Amino acid sequence: MAGGNERSIKALKEVWRRAENSFCADCGKPDPDWASSTLGVFICLSCSGIHRNIPSISKVKSLKMDHWDDAQVQFLANHGNAVTKATYEAHIPIYYYQPNYSDCQVLREQWIRAKYERKEFTELGKQLPYHDGVKEGILWKRGRDNGQFLPRKFLLSEREGCLKYFTKQDAKEPKINIKIDVINATFQPVKIGNPNGLQITYLKDNKTRNIFVYHESGK
Ligand SMILES: [Zn+2]
């Protein structure tokens, strides 16, 4: 704690030691040693890297190496993981998958941005476009040519009765848009090499097409 005075170091340790702050606010990893001085959350090193990508929302500092002044320590004391969670995670849809520390960076970044940057869960109904029987999530899809798995946004719409997926995170038009009633999905852990592997088969132009996907959690 270079340069810090003893009183603020002591106060910082007291806040840090609270049970609510002993797990990363974003992925649940034990013993976080970073914190956001603007959001007031205690986070792990890995999630602090994601926070650093959204500097307009979050300023991260090491709890061990950086100096925290009295006002910043007071801010952490007034916020902390429990209070901040009550605000930013107030209304998470039941189908929303909350990543943990074993999940990949892509999933965690999506979660962190949804939570703090887009504030999707602060108010009831903010997720309205998705509420209408629509499930959205990231699945790892095998590329047709090189066989490599890449994360892709998938959308399942009950109202429209179709499954769509997008090659780009912010794409407006889906790469495919298939009617659910022509889809056949089977679990194929061996074929795909993942316990949560799924083969989606559908008909297009009278030809059978296959998509191979998996999700890390199996949800
Ligand atoms: Zn974390």
Offer a quick outline of the entry.
The protein is an alpha+beta fold. It has seven helices and ten strands.
Structure explained in plain terms:
With about 220 residues, this protein is α+β, with helices and mostly antiparallel strands. It folds into two domains: about 5-115, Arf GTPase activating protein (Annexin V, domain 1); about 130-215, Pleckstrin-homology domain (PH domain)/Phosphotyrosine-binding domain (PTB) (PH-domain like, Roll). About 25% of the residues lie in helices and about 25% in strands. The chain contains seven helices and ten strands. The strands form two sheets. It has a seven-stranded antiparallel sheet with strand order 7-6-5-4-10-9-8. A three-stranded antiparallel sheet has the order 2-1-3. A hairpin with a 2-residue loop joins strand 9 (about 195-205) and strand 10 (about 205-215). Helix 1 (about 5-15) packs parallel to helix 3 (about 70-80). The longest helix has 13 residues, at about 105-115. It is elongated and about 75 Å long. The chain binds zinc ion.
